[in-house]
Amino acid sequence: MQQVMRLLLATIEDVPELLDLQRKAFGPQCRDLHFEDAPPMTETLEHAYEEFAQCITLKAVDENGRIVGSIRGSVADGSLYLGRLMVLPEYWRQGIGKQLFREIQRRLPHNRAWLCTCPQVPAPYQFYLREGFKVFKCEDVGHGLTWFYMEKMNIRLEQTADYREVENLTREAFWNVYRPGCTEHFVLNQYRSNLDFMPELDFVMEEEGKIIGHVMFSKAGLVLPDGTRKPSWTFGPISIHPAYKRKGHGLELLNYALTKAREVGVGFLCMEGNLDFYKHAGFGLASKLNIHYHTEPAEAEVPYFLAQELIPGWLGANGIAEATYCPPKGYFVADEKPEAFAAYEATFPAKEKAFAPGQLPQFCQSCGMPLTRREDCGTNADGSTSFDYCQYCYKDGKFLQDCTMEEMIAHCAQFLDEVNKNLPHPVTREEYIGQMRMFFPQLKRWRKQ
């Protein structure tokens, strides 16, 4: 059962009681490690006064005014050092340490928090892991013991002054990842004025004042089979600077944001992403929850369409047994405003677009032909490669056929024999035309039609 204590700033008069608490709190651990002369056990009162003067100490006080727990911290150059988290043994596992740990981080503004712990005492180490800290250095300290240095990045709400830095971060994070180039930074630039944007769930992650990560959330929707619309939510883009990828920061940022989303009532999330990564944050295939992707048949199991009930039972409580996901319209702004996107992109240093392994399948946005090589692509008016259209549809910035969508479908139907060579189960001409009539309205050239 979690005990609620008064958390107060300690004063110089508390030092003798804090030193006594320290010996009682660390005593059992030091004896288990056969390290009875460890610094917490041998510290003198004089030294304790000196240490107190260098730190801010927070104390947990019971109803009788007795100090039952404490923690100290100090900030230098934006980094918060946390030390000597301790609770009287008879008050262990009652949530007092967690209260102290979180409160001192709240009270002392910082860009990064760090601490030291001994993994041979597993309970504190596991607690720090659960609180989002990660090991960045190990050191042998003798006595058969290891010292783990752990850190946690600062996560805060995005501010207006961060916008350009965050957009540049997003561009660096997504460039040539899912497609040649990227549009996510323009989506972010435009989305902050969208009514679906949720500024209360728009977070940046910092290291020593430098923004290294970002995630934003948005309102979305679900449509039931009878046409009734229900609320839903999504998130993204989520960005981690390339220099910080594959170090756990993305999952740390996402888990923090999901906790905050749950706190403000976000009950159900849909998103597009890699299940191998997002399963670690609780996501699974949306089809398992009977939620369908808006551009695929209801019976399709779309491997990149994921979902999660942040509030258990939320779907049932809202009468949702089956629904189709409706993504926010603002996510397609680069396609809807190509001239604005081109002008915006020109404000950044030039980068080369390229096909790369692991990208999403790319299709000509006129005829649907797969684009896998630069040689497949058409050309823009300035002679550069168009990664949106194939060489058979687009040249020198102009379409090579002046036609309607239906006329393009009829033209593509001529190549059914070639298409069937690459399909596990051949389709008829009528089936192929039906599939194109579902697919082509999603292509850039025909979307407005």
Range of helix content: 25-40%
First-last Cα distance? 61 Å
Mean pLDDT: 93
Rg over CA atoms = 28 Å
Q: What share of the residues does DSSP label as strand, in percent?
A: 25-35%
> What would you call the shape?
elongated
Task: Compute the number of strand runs.
Answer: 21
The top-level CATH class of the largest domain is Alpha Beta
- Number of helical regions: 15
Oligomer: single chain
Query: How many domains comprise the coordinates?
Result: 3
| Content-based structural category | alpha+beta
List key phrases describing it:
Aminopeptidase, three-stranded antiparallel sheet, twelve-stranded mixed sheet, single chain, 3 domains, alpha+beta, elongated
Overview of the molecule:
With 449 residues, this protein is α+β, with helices and mostly antiparallel strands. It has helices at 15-32, 39-42, 45-54, 96-107, 122-130, 163-174, 184-191, 249-263, 275-278, 314-317, 333-336, 338-345, 405-412, 416-420, 429-439; strands at residues 6-9, 56-61, 67-76, 79-87, 112-117, 134-142, 145-157, 197-207, 210-223, 229-240, 268-272, 284-285, 291-292, 305-309, 323-326, 362-363, 370-371, 377-379, 385-390, 394-395, 398-399. The chain is built from 15 helices and 21 strands. The strands form five sheets. Strands 1, 2, 3, 4, 5, 6, 7, 8, 9, 10, 13 and 15 form a twelve-stranded mixed β-sheet that branches. α6 (163-174) packs antiparallel against α7.
